[in-house]
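--- STAGE predict ---
source: upstream dedup step, 1 unique chain passed
mode: sequence only
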Amino acid sequence: MAKILYIEDNEDNIYMMSRRLQRKGYEVLIARDGADGLAQAKSRVPALILMDLGLPVIDGWEVTRQLREAPETAAVPIVALSAHAMPEDRERAFAAGCDDFFAKPVNFPRLIDRIDALLNATPKT
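--- STAGE serialize ---
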């Protein structure tokens, strides 16, 4: 069972996404702000991270940059999930180090396909 860290501050999104991911067989860790997400990613090293970009404490772009700089999380796939859906927001997410970007509301079947592809492409350690 792959471990996914979901960094999101909206309780409704957390409830909906975590339940759907658990039904697909993933273990879901939750962080409600960027600082907690950064700490959990480094200490628990998930197989994949779902990153909201508009987070309190530290925004998702900065969390992603810091995760890419840390040896323990540099290779962990990061998928941005954001209401910031303008082309420049997408470009900014990729520049920070995200592997993919989905605008909210997220197309869940497409997201699951992408999660599976990223997890299957990631070398197992």
